[in-house]
Amino acid sequence: MAQLDTRQKLAILADAAKYDASCSSSGTVKRDSRGGKGIGSTEGMGICHAYAPDGRCISLLKILLTNSCIFDCHYCINRKSSNVRRARFSAKEVVDLTLSFYRRNYIEGLFLSSGIIRSSNYTMEQIVEVARSLREDHDFRGYIHLKTIPDADPELVHQAGLHADRVSINVELPTVGGLKRLAPEKSATQIEGAMADVKTAIVDNKDARKKYKSAPKFAPAGQSTQMIVGADSATDGDIVVRADSLYGRFGLRRVYYSAFSPIPDASAILPLQRPPLMREHRLYQSDWLIRFYGFAAQEVAAAADESGMLPLDIDPKLAWALKFRGGFPVDVNRAPREMLLRIPGLGVKAVNGIIASRRWRTLRLADVARLTVSLARIRPFIVAADWRPVVLADRADLRPIVAPKREQLELFGG
Known about the structure:
Elements: H1 6-16, E1 61-64, H2 91-103, E2 109-113, H3 120-137, E3 143-147, H4 154-163, E4 166-168, H5 176-182, H6 188-211, E5 223-229, H7 236-250, E6 254-259, H8 277-292, H9 297-302, H10 316-323, E7 330-331, H11 337-340, H12 348-357, H13 365-369, H14 375-378, E8 382-383, H15 390-394, H16 399-402
Parallel strand pairs: 1-2, 2-3, 3-4, 4-5, 5-6, 7-8
Helix pairs in contact: 2-3, 3-4, 4-6, 7-8
Cofactor: [4Fe-4S] cluster
Protein name: Putative DNA modification/repair radical SAM protein
GO molecular function: catalytic activity; iron-sulfur cluster binding; metal ion binding
């Protein structure tokens, strides 16, 4: 490997890290340095939740320790056989970069991942050393997210959790068959075993902290994972069901979805084109339906078409409502909260507003209109004091009426 200066390494390793979407900086404990001790913060003006247009968080220093790797996963640009320029940071260089960037107010925390060099344990040791040095040598109190190596020694993964706010282990692909085909050196059993160990450690730590206030925190922001979308033949239905299983079995805080990007000198078994980014967006919306709207994974999957794919032109909740119109219209003055949440166009905030308002008055259509952006989209699915969708409810061609209209956005629109 040629000798590179820090700026050159940063250019290579920051670019190599862009494919990892799971770098959210939310959900951790409050921690600051206003008392004159330490450096960094996770509250107030700390993590600022700045996101790129594609949804990726840009408030963290997001880099790889190295883009060299002993594995040869077909979908990965950093795979062993890939013809890319390689670079590697030392643990001290990452620590110095993080502190330097923080003092310049460029970043509010660190997201660190790595290719695997020498062995999984050696790589994990280097990752842990970065977090340890930041916390213990420099009293860094900002956010740290570490991507762990699934087949590393469990004690090393445990050490990562003691220093990091969040740890994550990527399941990589939605199906075991896809993982065997595209990443034969990785094991779904090892990945899930490591996730189970982290879950156990998080639960044990919460119990310990209830008994002993001095017990050290372990990954207070929990664990997350990421799935690549479009590299294998998994349908949206497969992905939604798999994500729901991961939430239930491992207590994940988030599942991230990353649309597959074609890479230079790609393997012949990979798709030639990337899936539409809208597919990634619809999967995130499906994820929200399961986590915040009371939908079961099978219900969301049922909104897909015969091929198992969610429609790209309408959101999953509208697709489900159009497919199961027998449950509508819903009376906004009488329906329980769980049914109101299933009305297309009504979010959690709007539903809370409806429930609060109807305690004092009978809601009319105009009252509902004040709580939502598009009344036309909602009308076919609700009953109010002065509204009943008699004609709309019976229309067979309802979709063109409620589907969002396509329009050209203005560059300088207000």
